[in-house]
Amino acid sequence: MPSLPSRLLRGxxxxxxxxxxxxxxIIPGVSGGxxxxxxxxxxxxxxxxxxxxxxxxxxxxxxxxxxxxxxSREHFGQVAWPLLIPLGIGMIAGLIAAAAVVAPIVExxxxxxxxxxxxxxxxxxxxxxxxxxxxWTWREWALAVPSAAxxxxxxxxxxxxxxxPSALLVALSGALAVCALAIPGLSGSFILLVMGxxxxxxxxxxxxxxxxxxxxxxxMAIGFALFVxxxxxxxxxxxxxxxxxxxxxxxxxxxxxWPWQDENGDALAPGSDIDVTVLWFAIGVIVVAATLVxxxxxxxxxxxxxVDVLDD
Length: 312
Hints:
Strand content: under 5%
Order of helices and strands: HHHHHHHHHHHHHH
Number of domains: 1
Radius of gyration: 20 Å
Number of helices: 14
Shape: globular
Number of strands: 0
Low-confidence stretches: 302-312
Mean pLDDT: 81
């Protein structure tokens, strides 16, 4: 069993991981699923979320069928709580902080921000590509290339804004956005932009609009409950195929991060600030490369009792 310092260190690491995922969910074009892949929690997060959803379903349905709570306890017991709790706390804290701090930075420095995130995503493509396992075959390429083309097309869709969205539209946007969170390469914030609800959702977070946020969260819960089981099955039974598609989606989504864009998101030629922009791109590359190196070191680092601080 891990020592107390080991457990505390692991909890702190997972808290930081969750904060990173929460922060990028505010930024259109950057996928929380991508960050989950980069920091090494993606598959464990999907597995735990699946067990949590199944546990909740049995908790509600089984008493109505006079079956008790044995099944729900079984599923809850499969949840990696030491990972999920600090990750969830970090995500919420990161999302709230990003809404107040990061989003204005992106708004006032869009070119440099997009360059920074483009550098991050470019180097991060190595993560799902490596996780495919072994050398890529023609089948992986045949799936990754169309996936990249699909993401490239999707991120070129025009965006809008709905001033007073209905509750049904808010719930639907939550359901679709959380599905994008689970898929590396698809940005939940960009889906909100396409649906015209990005500004209203960001305003609801900053103003703590309980009614709006509650409706959005209900939609997220429904969308995730319907989607996560499918995703878990694909990762378990079609691992190489799923990760090849994710790699393609990540690559194609980089269209949204071309630094020079007009107000409609159409690409422009590089401006006079190209030297500063390239510098921020390089910083993004270095940040992710350093994260991956640190992750590799931590995985191999054994603390007291020979227990890895990143193992659950």
